[in-house]
TrEMBL record:
The keyword Hydrolase applies. This is GH92 family glycosyl hydrolase. SUPFAM superfamilies: Six-hairpin glycosidases. Pfam families: Glyco_hydro_92, Glyco_hydro_92N.
Amino acid sequence: MIKKLILSCLLFAAFTVSAQQNLVQYVKPIIGTSKMGHTYPGATVPFGAVQLSPETDTLSYEVNGKYNGDVYKYCAGYKYEDKTITGFSHTHFSGTGHSDLGDFLIMPTQGKLQMNPGTAADPKSGYRSAYTHANEVAEAGYYKVKLDDDNILAELTATNRVGMHRYTFPKSDQSHLILDLMAGIYNYEEKTVWTYVRVVNDTLVTGYRQTNGWARTRTVYFAMSFSKPFKSYGRKSYDPKQAYRGFWGKFNQDKNFPEIAGKKIKMFFDFDTQEGEQVKIKFALSPVSQENALQNMRAEISGWDFDKVKAQAQSTWNKELNKIQVTTSNNNKINFYTALYHAFINPTTYTDVNGEYKGLDQGVHKADGFTNYTTFSLWDTYRALHPFFNIMQPGRSNDMVKSMMAHYDQSSLHMLPIWSHYANDNWCMSGYHSVSVIADAIVKGTYNGDPNKALDACVTTAKHRDYEGIGYYMDLGYIPAERSGVSVSNTLEYAYDDWAIAQLAKKLNRTAIYNEFIKRSGNWRNNYDAASGFMRPKLADGTFKKAFDPKDTEGQGFIEGNSWNYSFFVPHDPSAMVEVMGGKKKFAARLDSLFSMHLPDEFFAHTEDITREGIIGGYVHGNEPAHHVAYLYNWTDNAYKGQAQIRHILNMQYKPTADGLGGNDDCGQMSAWYMFSSLGFYPVSPGSDDYSLGSPLISNAVLNLENGKTFTIEAIKQSDRNVYVEKVLLNGKEISNHQIKHSDIINGGKLTFYMSAKPKK
């Protein structure tokens, strides 16, 4: 009996070990760092508050008082094509089309102290260094690069709130670590409002930095600890002359002075190093205080074992990656697990280890029973990323909705977040898509807070008359073209959001609200021009704007898109859209035209977010508004055409290379599309519990759900040629309507696709 018990234990242990695959090996953070992806290659942990990554240039947001278009290439701070590194900073956005952050840049140097970064053409003119990709390693939770100019090896890893550096120096009595408190992404002269640095002792420095940028009032506190005492330190101030400075001039603050304050400050710390000596840094962040930053550091990294921290970071990543185990080709695995990695970077933790965080009211709050998050790029992520969380990260999704509700409670405008950013709302993009995320979470049973309070917050936000044309929208049923340059986009996105509110109201039996918002959700019809067959700007007098080109992305009433793409933006009522556009046959032909037409460069020449790499025909996959469009074939008699297009998009728009993304990853939205579509289904209309079926790329996938159940997906006869679906079985029963329910997944079971090279017409 004892022998049998021991054998059973050994078998269980063996099964447990084999069940956890080494999936970190397939994550390539370098994907998307070239061209339009705007991802960063540095070290972070899932949903981490620290994103420790290299910067490759110092471009200003403006030149001669005007926007500098080249700065757009540096939204993530790092551009793969560059040949120099200026340092390593602790905060980054992943895949965005606008930017901020890049806080607390650290650069190791040797020899004569240089406090300016120098130029890319002559890196030795400053503290920057040349490097090559041959000496660069980017992994989940770890980054390494050799800085050629001073022969210094730089290594980075991280915990949730702490970045850890390890620099291996040559022998020298002039080794330095520079802390540049002026550096930043989308930087400009007046961006840093104030900086404070306190040298506590010869291994500990604390302080904070306040900036005014995309986030209007953003303060980040830090604690910085060295593994080795520095022998001397100092500052370089670039502050302009001002009328009054008090009496601090009694001190020489440039050398070995322990308390520094100003707008434009750089610090340096000097060391003697032996050949191959490693100097390590722990750099902790806090949204609340220097004391909290130090508490975060002590809680998350108690010692100086860099390799242990790296192993913990990669183990954490591996646990998250193993939530989905796929069988497919090696390149597809790289694409899939890098997409999963990118999807689990944002939103980011905005809570200290003691539960404190700074709110929109700039006061200190405590998250009671939840983790507070920021970095909600909602115009992008409501479409697929947040629905993906409701399957694979329901616990975190619950906390994200609670974070949105806390945002609402602290907002002086009584609005849910539009784009949440470090105790600010930067108000970027169209719609009020928090309501979609909230409705989707409640409809799918993810949120355990007060659903009626959440619905009230959604309604209040949707009735904020002086925000982006909502008053006109409520009164007229559309936004007049004279009143807004993005009038059509806003009307269409508000209509979808209103439908999401209606679904939530329906679930809660709030009939009056349901009736009001289901009516508002039909406002998309007011911008549909039956004569041209397109969504079109409408004037205040009720007539359509005469000068109109559905291919143009500029001056036509749309944001980051054109009418050809936005005319399909009725995700909440595809059947009605098909009907007004002439029925299934004409609608399918219209979709065919979108995917097969040629869109000349002139029609997107002035749009930063759309480039040729992200376009198939006239379909723009490199931006979000049409991400659901290939699935609309399911509302025609030609579902097979959608299956072919989905597989085409998967293979064309995602590659395991630095330039492998056809557009901004946008905090994980592009990646979430890839994962959903690779698995064979997609949330066309978040707020519904339906998913639309497509053409899976994987041969097999196991979704290990938080509730302990598994959902298995199998594609029989999967191949590059077999892109068409012959039939689909759910738990052995054939599906006839191209849809599955959220409950079908969460309850566990098996979805089987039978693939074929011949379309099922």
